[in-house]
Amino acid sequence: MNKDGKRFPLSLSSVVDAPGKATSRPVHSPKTATQQTAMQNAMTHGPVKKQFATGQPMSDGNISQNKITLESSRGSPLVSDAVRRAMVARVAQQGVKDQLVLSALDAIPRHLFVQSGLASQAYIDASLPIGHHQTISQPYIVARMTEIMRDGGTLHRVLEIGTGCGYQAAVLSLVAKEVFSIERIKALHELAKNNLRPMRIANIRLHYGDGMLGLPQVAPFDGIIMAAAGMEVPKALLEQLTIGGRLIAPVGGAKQVLQLIQRTAKNEWKSSVLEHCHFVPLHQGVI
Ligand code: SAH
Predict the structure, then answer these.
(1) Using a 6 Å cutoff on CB, does residue 111 contact ligand 1?
(2) What is d(CA 189, CA 141) in angstroms, rounded to the nearest whole number?
(3) How many other C-beta atoms can be found within 10 angstroms of the C-beta atom of residue 239?
(4) Is the pLDDT score of 262 beyond 70?
(5) In sequence order, what are the residues at sequence separation of 6 or more whose Cβ sits closer than 8 angstroms to the Cβ of residue 54?
(6) Which of 210, 206, 261, 208 is CA-nearest to residue 233?
(7) How many other C-beta atoms are found inside a 10 Å radius of the C-beta of residue 26?
(8) What separation in angstroms does the CA of 268 have from each of 62, 240, 242, 263, 264?
(9) Mean pLDDT of 77-92
(10) Distance from the CA of 242 to the center of ligand 1, in angstroms?
(11) Does ligand 1 have an atom closer than 6 angstroms to the CB of 199?
């Protein structure tokens, strides 16, 4: 899809699944950050005007063609490239080692994915509210999950469950050849489209639907990342992994852990539990 030179919004598509039961409940945010900290962060910092920052695509073999087009950053020091670099340095200090992932975090202007009034907080390592009782994930957990899913290999086709504002999808677009992302809340699906459009990322496809069903029409995926926590990983998603593929997901209710599932054979999956985390809940159906 990069070869034909098509750009956003041409590459966006929508899939609408039949509405199911849906109960949206606030919670979320990985590791130490919580919905409460997100709200506090929102209240303790003043508004900063949205600005474009430089997004440097990284090069790593075949994915170097994934380009992000942005105007250069000027003005507020709170959304500058230096502030973003400092965020990346903190994420690296917390143990993320994958240089490709760190470069992706450095390239994506996170302040363009939060409400303009919260732009000044975009580079602190916390989740922030994005409306509809959902949050943009904490940079550390975005990086950590991406690193675990990639495991130093080449990702061809990845699937994200829970697009939210589109930030993680943008990060993924720089580490994978093709990114598919599903969101069940129509308004957030639209928000992500609007956030991503100016970046002209050619290798992201956004879908409106229930991510618990996956995307059988484009499966299999060699990586699947879930941005919302269920009590278990939906079976449909396990079936949509390639053999050798890796799925990373928060699992649990009040107490959650990151679970890594690797498909080792047609009918065989290996699961391991990693660190604690805290995400918004996974819900069935669309709203
Ligand atoms: N990936 C986002 C995080 C969004 S928060 C980021 O980059 O910051 C998690 C998102 O998962 C919410 O927007 C929520 O609506 C969505 N979600 C929850 N259950 C879902 C489901 N079954 N299918 C698709 N999206 C779902």
Answers:
(1) no
(2) 21
(3) 14
(4) yes
(5) 70, 72, 73, 81, 109
(6) 261
(7) 15
(8) 29, 13, 11, 6, 5
(9) 91
(10) 23
(11) no
Kindly report the three-state secondary structure assignment for every residue of 93-119: HCCCCCHHHHHHHHHCCHHHHCCHHHH
Beta bridge partners of 157: 178
Please name which of 233, 33, 59, 243 lies closest in space to residue 142, comparing C-alpha atoms. Answer: 33
CA of 130 to the centre of ligand 1 (A): 11
Query: Whose Cα sits closest to atom 2 in ligand 1?
Result: 164
| 136-181 pLDDT tens trace | 999 999 999 999 999 999 999 999 999 999 999 999 999 999 999 9
- Please, what is the angle between helix 81-93 and helix 99-107, to 10°? 150
Q: Pairing relation of β-strands 134-136 and 128-131? A: antiparallel
The CA 61 to ligand 1 mean position distance, Å, reads: 30
| Contact residues for 87 (Cβ-Cβ < 8 A; gap 6+) | 105, 110, 123, 124, 125, 139
- What does the alpha-carbon distance between residue 134 and residue 41 come to, in Å, rounded to a whole number? 15
Can you tell me the distance from the alpha carbon of 177 to that of 148, in angstroms, rounded to the nearest whole number? 17
Helices within the chain (DSSP H only)? 35-44, 81-93, 99-107, 139-150, 167-172, 186-196, 235-239
Q: What pLDDT digit, counting tens, does each position of 48-64 carry?
A: 223 322 222 333 333 44
Q: Both tokens of residue 75?
A: 């003005």
CB 130 within 8 A of CB 22: no
The yes-or-no answer on residue 11 being catalytic is no
What distance in Å separates the CA atoms of residue 177 and residue 1, rounded to the nearest whole number? 9
Q: What is the mean pLDDT of residues 185-200?
A: 97
